[in-house]
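seq:
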Amino acid sequence: MGEMFNKFKVENILGSVLMIVVGVFLIIHPDDTLSIIAYGISAVMVIMGIIKIVGYLKGSKGDSTVNGLNEYSSPWNLIAGILLIIFAGLIATVLMNLISFVLGILIIGSGAIKLEQGITMNKNGGKGLFVIILGVVAIALGVICIAKPSFVNNIITQLIGAGLAYGGVTDILSTALVSKSK
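struct:
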């Protein structure tokens, strides 16, 4: 039982350190993150395509075929991977802009509803000024999401990085506390 716990402890600490490293990287380099992910995915696709093509040319089909589709799709994996490598920066930028645009539209919609509710409250004799202010702030934040997508995406990436780093640190602390209690 003790040996199993020690193995778990080591794996947990290594995973936590990885979370901290990735989290700090996301905090320091938020603008590079999507490009690195795109390059990573494209590298995996290229490697998989090459492995499948070489395996097919050697005649070793093994369990890699699903109705013979993989031998024919492997060149496409390779081509798609190469295209991703070439256009990774563009794809990352388009994806970032799309995410910010969609978030901006959703936030503007939410703000417009709050604004309408606040105005309706005021018309009915209620105190809707606070709700109106919330609506205006939401609309402004939505406009920022649409107008400054890289700024918004950097903040989101940094928040994700902070969450990962926090999770890694707290995992290490909790593992240390559990170890002391054993």
